[in-house]
């Protein structure tokens, strides 16, 4: 790249893994009719993090846009289905709630259901709000079926995601990309060339001397940020004062329980533990803060909690929560861990990769580098990271736990003004502040608010005006309808068998 007017004829993606091959596959699809060459440089000597196995529903639309057949994807990535995330021991030890990928109840007369439920809960004997969510009821029963297409059906009120082997997914997308002309180059980068005036990246040199030039570089090199940080010094916003967990042990195990259609996050003394069931194994990990516990203690805590025999030694990862100050700098776009990292509590890592890819395609600088495109990319991604950050912080600050130094810290720490306002609006009037941009919709916030014991002080006056007997009758009918919908669903493992997958019971 010699100047800002150079047409983009070659894109070089630095690093493979999930981020690199998602980017390569998407660009191959989006730019198929344009004269743009796409290369991926990765080294077999450099491992990938590869523990992010749980996703959010947006991944379905990513796969569908590429024309990926769901059954084939499930078989080749050992995927299971995911209706939400169960949180144990977060507000108080012994508590459990699920953040579902779907609605709570049905609005009545234009009134959000949770306002009606709150009135009934205070005036009548009424089941927990969680009992009015189809994906929660199905998850608790280990049942799964795709949503109904008829919007009038209660079966249309939810979505779903996947739990899959991230290494197999990267390999799947590599096959997809290479079939569409993407070239993979093996090698470790030892030098980065820059334009003498603009500082833009012009080339990378591999061990052995091969020099590869390109016009646009996508940095998928992981935490290091080889191009975006080591070369361009984009800077990093450190959010560890709000999200103090900075380490994780990860270990796979054999199956020791049911094939649940949900991920689990169990709060521990200085962090939390994940459980992600796949067809062939269970992913486990302990995310913890090194300020409040040591590695040996964290490792022992994880290994003592496993439900079945480990299949490997636990692997330690270190990270700093936050994001690059500029994720697009000159002719380098950072995607994945090179762009930032927000701990995996809500399975957002792959989603943030997907968002960045979509925004890059939307703003692709075919005619040359455009500072307006870079500015818009950075503005949009900054907002997305901040919205996810706020939602993650909510899980920590909305706790009543004071049994360890870690929980005493997070429950009393200062939080971003945007989150302070959102919590206050809900605590006072049950208002869910809607961000103009951001992935988490109203049901997600409701799940965490109510699940972690934040309830509105005042009810909605319009809900208070409705005839209580009529509301109660319609709510009981809704409960019956939900129960019937769940009963009609097949077992989660059986559904996977139907797609040609191998659930653990069949493997045994």
Task: Provide tags for this entry.
508 residues; 7-stranded mixed beta sheet
Description of the structure:
This protein is α+β, with helices and mostly antiparallel strands and 508 residues long. The chain has 17 helices and 21 strands. It has helices at residues 17-30, 58-65, 70-77, 113-123, 134-140, 166-179, 226-231, 295-305, 349-362, 371-397, 405-412, 417-429, 442-451, 461-465, 468-487, 492-498, 504-507; strands spanning 10-14, 37-42, 80-82, 84-88, 96-100, 161-163, 183-186, 189-194, 201-206, 211-213, 216-219, 236-238, 247-253, 263-268, 271-277, 282-288, 315-318, 322-324, 328-329, 332-334, 340-341. The strands form 5 sheets. Strands 5-4-14-15-16-13-17 form a 7-stranded mixed sheet. Helix 1 (17-30) runs parallel beside helix 6, helix 1 runs parallel beside helix 9 (349-362) and helix 9 (349-362) packs antiparallel against helix 10 (371-397). The termini are far apart.
Helix-residue proportion? 25-40%
Separation, N- and C-terminal Cα atoms: 56 Å
Rounded mean pLDDT is 93
- Class by SSE composition: alpha+beta
- Rounded to an integer in angstroms, the radius of gyration calculated over CA atoms is 24 Å
Oligomer: single chain
Tell me what portion of residues adopts beta-strand conformation.
Answer: 15-25%
Spans of at least 5 consecutive residues with low confidence:
none
């Amino acid at each position: 790249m010699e100047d800002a007017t150079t047409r983009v004829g070659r894109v070089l993606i630095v690093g493979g893994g999930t981020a690199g091959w998602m980017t390569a596959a998407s660009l191959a699809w989006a730019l198929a009719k344009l004269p743009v060459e796409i290369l991926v440089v990765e080294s077999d000597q450099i491992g990938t993090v590869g523990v992010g196995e749980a996703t959010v529903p947006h991944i379905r639309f990513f796969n569908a846009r590429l024309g990926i057949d769901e059954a084939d994807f499930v078989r080749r990535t050992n995927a299971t289905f995911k209706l939400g995330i169960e949180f144990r021991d977060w507000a108080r030890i012994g508590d459990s709630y699920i953040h579902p990928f779907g609605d709570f109840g049905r609005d009545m007369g234009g009134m959000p259901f949770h306002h009606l439920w709150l009135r009934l809960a205070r005036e009548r004997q009424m089941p927990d709000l969680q009992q009015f969510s189809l994906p929660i009821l199905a998850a608790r029963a280990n049942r799964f079926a795709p949503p109904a297409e008829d919007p009038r059906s209660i079966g249309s009120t939810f979505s779903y995601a996947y739990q899959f082997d991230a290494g197999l997914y990267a390999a799947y997308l590599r096959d997809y990309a290479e079939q569409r002309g993407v070239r993979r180059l093996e090698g470790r980068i030892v030098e980065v060339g820059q334009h003498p005036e603009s500082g833009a990246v012009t080339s990378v040199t591999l061990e052995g001397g091969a020099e590869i030039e390109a016009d646009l570089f996508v940095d998928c090199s992981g935490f290091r940020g080889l191009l975006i940080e080591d070369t361009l010094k984009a800077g990093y916003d450190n959010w560890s004062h709000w999200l103090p967990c900075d380490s994780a042990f990860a270990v796979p195990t054999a199956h020791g329980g049911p094939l649940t259609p949900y991920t689990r996050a169990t709060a521990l003394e200085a962090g939390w533990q994940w459980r992600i069931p796949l067809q062939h194994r269970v992913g486990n990990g302990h995310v913890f803060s090194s300020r409040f516990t040591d590695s040996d203690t964290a490792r022992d805590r994880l290994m003592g909690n496993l439900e079945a025999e480990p299949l490997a030694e636990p692997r330690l990862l270190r990270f700093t929560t936050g994001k690059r100050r500029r994720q697009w700098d000159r002719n380098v776009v950072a995607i994945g861990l090179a762009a930032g990292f927000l701990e995996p509590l809500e399975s957002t890592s792959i989603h943030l990769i997907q968002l960045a890819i979509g925004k890059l395609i939307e703003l692709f600088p075919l005619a040359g580098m455009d500072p307006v495109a870079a500015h818009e990319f950075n503005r949009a991604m900054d907002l997305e990271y901040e919205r996810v950050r706020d939602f993650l912080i909510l899980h920590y600050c909305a706790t009543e736990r004071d049994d360890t130094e870690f929980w005493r810290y997070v429950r009393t720490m200062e939080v971003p003004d945007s989150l302070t306002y959102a919590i206050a609006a809900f605590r006072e009037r049950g208002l869910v502040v809607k961000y103009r941009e951001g992935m988490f919709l109203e049901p997600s916030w409701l799940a965490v608010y109510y699940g972690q014991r934040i309830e509105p002080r005042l009810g909605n006056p319009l809900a208070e005006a409705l005839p209580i007997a009529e509301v109660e009758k319609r709510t009981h009918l809704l409960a019956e309808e939900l129960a019937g919908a769940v009963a009609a669903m097949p077992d989660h493992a059986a559904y996977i068998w139907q797609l040609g997958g191998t659930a653990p019971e069949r493997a045994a």
